[in-house]
Batch of 2 targets.
Target 1
Amino acid sequence: GEDVEQSLFLSVREGDSSVINCTYTDSSSTYLYWYKQEPGAGLQLLTYIFSNMDMKQDQRLTVLLNKKDKHLSLRIADTQTGDSAIYFCAEKERGKLIFGQGTELSVKP
Amino acid sequence: NAGVTQTPKFQVLKTGQSMTLQCAQDMNHEYMSWYRQDPGMGLRLIHYSVGAGITDQGEVPNGYNVSRSTTEDFPLRLLSAAPSQTSVYFCASSPGPQGTEAFFGQGTRLTVV
């Protein structure tokens, strides 16, 4: 079955790195995604990774994929107060996006 | 650039009332979906469509109907609203099964009293 799991909360200090973790179950997923949701807004795609990649870096964002363990992580370097939001990982299965519960990132000054 | 437009943004219904949440996209995307977002549960797929005239059920379809008569529009109908349908509803569209990005509307906050 389809299942994507994330921890619900993460709190960091401004300037530290944040690491948000996600596990998924569908080994045939071609794409894995990270979405960001700011308060009162819809979801915005942050980054994605193809399943044949181990790592993708995009400015302050680093995505790591461990296919063997079905584990995906998002690292945000030099976390800022503007990074406070809910972060969703998602896998695509037969054209449908399956989301985790979302991790609420709180950045303290 | 309109993208995905949802209306209304807010709605209060009484138990048993029916209503339609509207979703329109102007990107000629084939795939459209409806999700509901509840605290601690992430986004759950209600219904989706892979093209005009084609719809299918997602994870939580009960109490909702959809139709897709055009590529642009994908309305979600609540047949007889219940308090358990109090949620934030998001519509999304994407170019196709291999498309790398889904575009989301701003959401409709629905309260059923």
Note: Chain B is about 0% helix and 50% strand.
Target 2
Amino acid sequence: GDSVTQMEGPVTLSEEAFLTINCTYTATGYPSLFWYVQYPGEGLQLLLKATKADDKGSNKGFEATYRKETTSFHLEKGSVQVSDSAVYFCALSDRNENSGYSTLTFGKGTMLLVSP
Amino acid sequence: DAGVIQSPRHEVTEMGQEVTLRCKPISGHNSLFWYRQTMMRGLELLIYFNNNVPIDDSGMPEDRFSAKMPNASFSTLKIQPSEPRDSAVYFCASSLEASSYNEQFFGPGTRLTVL
């Protein structure tokens, strides 16, 4: 079945440092890939997405490129801020052959802590 | 625009009691998803609906769990009887269609504690 593996946290960085959170996936079809962010006490929010190979999703200074050859979708940001402290989830959406509908498969999440 | 609305935000109950969690999806969205989040297991999809019809409930952990969607603007997740291991944060999410391209919008969650 489909699966998503992302690096374990917490990732601890100083403000303005470069961020990379690794994500790799296994899928039977042609999935779309997502990064969601969860701030303390809140639900998940979409951060960015990419729907086909070589697409780059970007939002709020975060970027991730859909790499089919390495089955990866690593999240990067050039200069993190304290306000970026949150849990980041990599996810894929793939069509279920039985139901015909698509659902999200999430990684376990990576906590990012940014200190001033 | 109002996002996905869940109630209650927090629920504390005793083992054996019935618990009902409620969700109002975003107006116009056809698909609704229930998730459970725990430290040990992460985010798990419990059940999802399309046009109010349950499509796949294979993620529901036991017969004690049931979900309904009587109309396009309301869904419930019920646990009867509840057990301490059901303690978790339960999220409801909705999307336009359960397609691989569509973003799911999440509610704020219900934090359930079963004593």
Note: The interface with chain A takes residues 4, 31, 33, 42-43, 45, 48, 50, 55-56, 91, 93, 98-109 of chain B (CB under 8 Å).
